Structures are given as structure tokens and as C-alpha cells.
Amino acid sequence: MAQDFIDRISLGDRLFSSASRSVKILMIGQPNDVELTIARLYQCDFCRVEDWSRPLPFSQIQQAITKEPGEIMRIYVRSMTL
Hints:
With 82 residues, the chain is an all-alpha fold. It is 32% helix and 0% strand.
């Protein structure tokens, strides 16, 4: 199912304009776990460490997120293996 969606986008059947839209990745967890996950994402060439915001206390998360009309949220939960 996900591959079908990826194939449609790569064939030019774009549902979203990449110039006007963005995806916000929200990571919530214990500080060490968050930092470890960011480091792993960097190792996979997914993102640069310096592109992440500074750590925010959980109480400030609502202030840091700007919701656009029609946006949805999905949460990916992955167990940490230490």
C-alpha cells in the first residue's frame, strides 16, 4: 500500500505540491532516547542534527506547533533497544 503511494508520486501523480507543504516530525521521549534517535537518523542520512530545534519541555510543545487547516497527525511509536 505504501509502495503504491510512493510509485504514484514518483510518476508525477502528485497529490501535494512540495513547494508549498512540509511535514513536521515531532519526537517526544526521554532526553537521552530523543538524542540517540536523532543521532541514528543522522547516521542514516535522514537529517542533520543541527536542523532539529532545541529541546523543549513537554509543556511548550503546543506553543511550538502551528497547525495549518486540514492537517492531520500520525504518531510512530518504536520501542527503544539499548
